[in-house]
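In this supplementary section we document a worked example of the pipeline. Step one takes a protein sequence of length 118 as its only input; no multiple sequence alignment statistics are reported here. Step two produces a three-dimensional model, which step three serialises into structure tokens for compact storage. The input and output of this example are shown verbatim.
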Amino acid sequence: MRLPFRRGVAVSLFQAFARFKSNFVERRRSIRVQVQIPAWIDIGDGSQPLNATVVDLSDDGARITLASTADLPKKFWLALTKDKTKRRYCRVVFRSETQVGVQFLSTNQPDLFPPTMN
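The serialised model returned by step three reads:
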């Protein structure tokens, strides 16, 4: 597909995207890796943890897919193992209907479980 511009000059969508991408500035402090890791979200209200999937992961945060983000609070615990020995306290930095991007607020602390994760 070609996009017309003045004086008969045309630019393809690929070229337009390449120009946009060259101006994009990456703001993440660490590289994200695409993964497919089962995870569980504990919102800390005594309810059952929500099933989720981590789809990309870095030292500083993650992108998580789940059935719905509508009732998800701004902060929660993300368990990365079923026995909950690997988990992070998170803050939501973006959300869509089925995905959230989170910033990790803590490192793994296996001796400090929130009450609903015991």
